[in-house]
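WARN no homologs supplied; continuing
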Amino acid sequence: MPTSEELIELAEQCATKLDLDGTLRHVPSFSDTEEQCEEEYETLLQAIHEDELFASVDIQRQEELVESIAAALPEEARMLIIELADNHARHVWMQQEGAYHLGLAVGGRLKVRREH
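OK structure emitted
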């Protein structure tokens, strides 16, 4: 199980890969950032998954389960389970985006503190 310091080091490896040079007019989106440091980000996720609290996620299996459940239900309930799965995916993405932007804000404040 990785320590907080080890996770921060892995996150910093991601951050060093980001193209933040020049005059930015916006903060890169999570997907842009993920693309720029894909390998390092995957290493960070793997470290998080090693923790007993965070089991591995198999998106393909999740989709198969939703499809199996939906197929076994009457039409009205089928649409509900699909809507639930879609809503859950949007919720996870929203949390991920929020965590990313919060991380940027905290990182910026920590940087300012270190410079003083």
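The chain has a mean pLDDT of 82.
OK
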